[in-house]
Design goal:
single chain; 283 residues; alpha/beta; Rossmann fold; eight-stranded mixed β-sheet; 8 strands
Length: 283
């Protein structure tokens, strides 16, 4: 890999060489914080773990030092708490059967910088990892997320992938639910992952991030969202799944000619028109 930021840690659960671990990657997940992979992208992670032909590599961009802390860790300084979160991510990578996890260890401020050297280095680091992995599918946050660090990451992912030659880009790009649901998306603008029968496994992965489950029960919230998606996704048919994750299909953004903001706002406009059309029947 080229262009990695200083302090990057690479962990390979099965001990393979880093180049080999990246080279076998079929699915690449790029997220903001430790725990985001397990909370938002558990579907693809488990699909890879259960398929010998697929391997999932995760890229975690920040060290998570600024997150809410449980009472028994309130005394830790940022460096010590960041190491707790890194250890949790390594344990989750073991449990998830990941090919590798690359922890860039950046601060949220560096990730969220709108431009300049920090932003350029961040995008270049992601491009280097993506080039080494040559994954078929890339998974990240969705650009309609409410968390600014999540949005900073997905925009950097798009920039990084667009910097690659067209034949080195993935075949699909998906932005998964995080700090906003995506149940409002038109069906043809979404990607889904069926976690029927895998809910316990997904929740167990999330619980490796114990430092986060005390202050906020992300594990329960993520499962509740998946269950709600399965039931409320279609009011006209019987349920065929018990848990479903939803993502925004961002594959069109792999084309340099597609404006990212236009793609997202067009989906929002379609939602608005759908609501307006329904209301217009009676009001």
């Amino acid at each position: 890999m080229t262009g990695l930021v200083p302090g990057t840690q690479v962990y390979v659960p099965d001990g393979a060489a880093v180049a080999d671990a990246l080279g076998r990657t079929t699915d690449l997940g790029v997220v903001a914080h430790p725990d985001d992979v397990e909370l938002s992208i558990a579907g693809p992670v488990l699909a890879c773990r259960n398929d010998p032909a697929r391997w999932f590599t995760a890229v975690v961009c920040t060290d998570g030092a600024g997150s809410v802390r449980p009472a028994d860790m309130a005394h830790l300084n940022d460096a010590a708490f960041a190491e707790v979160r890194a250890a949790e991510q390594r344990a989750a990578a073991d449990a998830g059967g990941l090919s590798a996890v690359v922890m860039l260890g950046l601060s949220s401020a560096a990730v969220c910088a709108p431009g300049g050297v920090d932003r350029d280095r961040f995008v270049q680091a992601l491009a280097g990892i993506a080039s080494a992995a040559r994954a078929e599918a890339v998974h990240t946050h969705n650009p309609a997320d409410a968390h600014r660090t999540h949005v900073a990451v997905v925009t950097a992912v798009v920039s990084a992938l667009r910097s690659l030659p067209t034949d080195a880009r993935p075949t699909s790009l998906a932005g998964w639910e995080g700090w906003r649901d995506l149940d409002w998306l038109p069906p043809d603008a979404r990607v889904t992952a069926d976690l029927t029968g895998l809910g316990d496994e997904a929740t167990a992965l999330a619980r490796h991030h114990a430092s986060q489950m005390g202050p906020k029960r992300y594990d329960l919230a993520a499962r509740g969202r998946r269950q709600a998606n399965a039931t409320f996704g279609d009011p006209t048919t019987a349920d065929t799944a018990t848990e479903m994750a939803v993502a925004m299909d961002l594959t069109a953004l792999l084309d340099d000619g597609v404006d990212p903001s236009d793609l997202v706002l067009a989906a929002i406009d379609r939602f608005r028109c759908d609501v307006a059309g329904m209301l217009g029947r009676w009001w």
